[in-house]
Predict the 3D structure of the following.
Amino acid sequence: MIYISVQSNKDRVVGMNIHGHAHYANPGEDLVCAGVSSIATGLCNALDILHPSTSCTIANNIITIKISEPNDVSQTIMQTGIIQLETMVEVYSKYIKIIKQEV
């Protein structure tokens, strides 16, 4: 199972953690893992260019995004990614779980 934790503070997304493995298919052939990884990498790339004070790390099967000083640009990027991930959950709910937390 892929676990996605979205942290918000006063209706602003301030972070996201993604970890786990879908086990939808064999490693290297798992389209669910590839989809989530692609969305997360796209988020990190967009934030790196458009909101450089954001921290994105990808290591040890964990993707962590921390947004300092959230603004409209970072929120649009993160909300877009969350919508994409929620769309994947609609089809692959057995393999992906999104947890939203207020911090």
Summary: The mean pLDDT is 97. DSSP finds two helices and five strands in the chain. Residues 72-92 form the longest helix (21 residues). Residues 20 and 63 are 10 Å apart (CA to CA).
